[in-house]
Amino acid sequence: MATAVLTTPQGLLLDFGGVIVQSERATGWQQDLGAEVHGLLVQRLGAQLAPGRRRIVGDITAGTAGAGKWRDAMSRPFAPSELGWESFWGDFVAADWPAGAREVVVRNAQELCRRLTEVKSHRVTRPGIPELLTTARHRGIPVAIVSNALSGQVHRDFLADNGLTGYVDAQIYSDEVGIRKPNPRMIELGAQAIGVPVAACWYVGDNFDRDTVCGRRAGVGANIIVEARSTYELPYDLAEHPDAVVADGHALHALFEDSLSRSGS
Fold first, then answer.
1. C-alpha pair distances (Å), 213 with each of 41, 170, 183, 198
2. What pLDDT sits at residue 262?
3. Which PANTHER family does its entry note (predicted)?
4. Who has the most CB within 10 Å: 79, 175, 248, 251?
């Protein structure tokens, strides 16, 4: 699509998945996580009271798929809450397990969500993003991550492990604040955290239904999409359109530099 003349950003609000990183689904992650959960249940309850490993793997697979459909549906309400760790494991995965087994995974839900997020995908920093963050730091433009997440801790760990934490001024994750995009409060929290009015921020995401809608609801200065693997996998038709669509991190960096240059910043 054609790029409109964009406002010059005083702050950058960036999604994590699809913008900061590109991800590939790990092969056999359900079996790996299922083995861990089975081991936990055997340790806490004994082998006789623990569901079988095959059932655990099947319920993790089905629960993850069901939660994905729930997340698609939550792009419709104006201000959706996030699916909590305990609800994910207690309602989507272990709803029909014996009470004792269900209680174990609910009590350990935060850690199990962290492990699920770790093993489910392989993540690498998108090309062009380190350059974008470096330019923002040199130009004095604060950056916040604003992202839906089952475990924001995994995103925090990735930034730290890849030397990016120092370029990010704030991190807002849905599992930690209890709401999820397209709830506009997510973007408001990010803007508040970096001390920049929402209308003076660029918001950059990779999904039209979560990110573009969220940006419009919040009233961001510019609403930008970076194309990623799932960008055009829309759950339903949308009337909202971003101000710009770019192919990758390099194109986003170029757009950012061009905007600053035109403003004389």
1. 41, 22, 9, 15
2. 85
3. PHOSPHOGLYCOLATE PHOSPHATASE
4. 175
Omega of the bond leading into 182 within 30 degrees of 0 (cis): yes
End-to-end CA distance of the chain: 26
Distance CA 252, CA 3 (A): 12
Fold of the CATH domain 11-20+126-263: Rossmann fold (3.40.50)
Q: CA 136 from chain center: how many Å? A: 21
CB count in 10 Å sphere of residue 86: 15
Which residues on adjacent β-strands are paired with residue 22? Answer: 124
Distance of alpha carbon 38 from alpha carbon 168, whole angstroms: 37
- Asked if 125 contacts 101 with a C-beta cutoff of 8 angstroms, the reply is no
Supply 47's token pair.
Answer: 């082998």
Q: Any idea which residue has 């950012």 for tokens?
A: 256
The residue type of 92 is: F
Q: What are phi and psi of 136, to 5 degrees?
A: -60, -45
CB 12 within 8 A of CB 204: yes
What length is written for the chain? 265
159 contacts: CB under 8 Å, gap ≥ 6? 20, 145, 165, 168, 171
**The pair of three-digit structure tokens given for residue 46, joined into one six-digit string:** 């004994």
Digit-coded pLDDT (tens) for 91-134: 999 999 999 999 999 999 999 999 999 999 999 999 999 999 99
pTM for this model (two decimals): 0.95
Mind spelling out the 3-state secondary structure of 205-259? ECCHHHHHHHHHHHCCCEEEEECCCCCCCCCCCCCCCCCEEECCHHHHHHHHHHH
Q: Where are the domains of the chain?
A: 11-20+126-263, 26-120
